[in-house]
Amino acid sequence: MAWIYLLLAGLFEVIWAIGLKYTEGFARLWPTVGTVTAMVISIVLLAMAVKTLPIGTAYAIWTGIGAVGAVALGIVLFGDPATLPRLLCVALIVIGIVGLKLTAT
């Protein structure tokens, strides 16, 4: 169950990271409410996951999911550059996430 909590925590991290763009510096009420809500949910799920998972592994995977998701949605939603070097770096993050999952106890 901890891995499911961690996956969900990572997905909520993607939501709040992208939500930050829509808050316009926390100047827009409803995007701010949604973003802060996603932040709280993400942290609570991470806390539940680290009850049984190693903190280093869980935190690295959580931030990795957030980074990969934010880059992907930045490309799709905001026209961020999708250059080969950026995509290769994202691939390295994914490899790290998979490696940490496979070596976790």
TrEMBL record:
One Pfam family hit: Multi_Drug_Res
Principal location listed in the UniProt entry: membrane
InterPro entries under this entry? EmrE-like (IPR037185), Small_drug/metabolite_transptr (IPR000390), Small_multidrug_res (IPR045324)
SUPFAM superfamilies, A to Z: Multidrug resistance efflux transporter EmrE (SSF103481)
Chain segments annotated as transmembrane: 27-47, 59-78, 84-104
Q: Does the keyword Phosphoprotein apply?
A: no
What topology does it adopt in the membrane?
Answer: Multi-pass membrane protein
Q: What superkingdom does the record give?
A: Bacteria
Give the range the annotation lists for the signal sequence: none
Q: Which Gene3D superfamilies match?
A: 1.10.3730.20
Q: Does the keyword Membrane apply?
A: yes
Q: What are the entry keywords?
A: Cell membrane, Membrane, Transmembrane, Transmembrane helix, Transport
Q: Where in the cell is it found?
A: Cell membrane
Q: Which family does it belong to?
A: Belongs to the drug/metabolite transporter (DMT) superfamily. Small multidrug resistance (SMR) (TC 2.A.7.1) family. Gdx/SugE subfamily.
Name listed for the protein in its UniProt record: Guanidinium exporter
Q: Which organism is it from?
A: Rhodanobacter panaciterrae
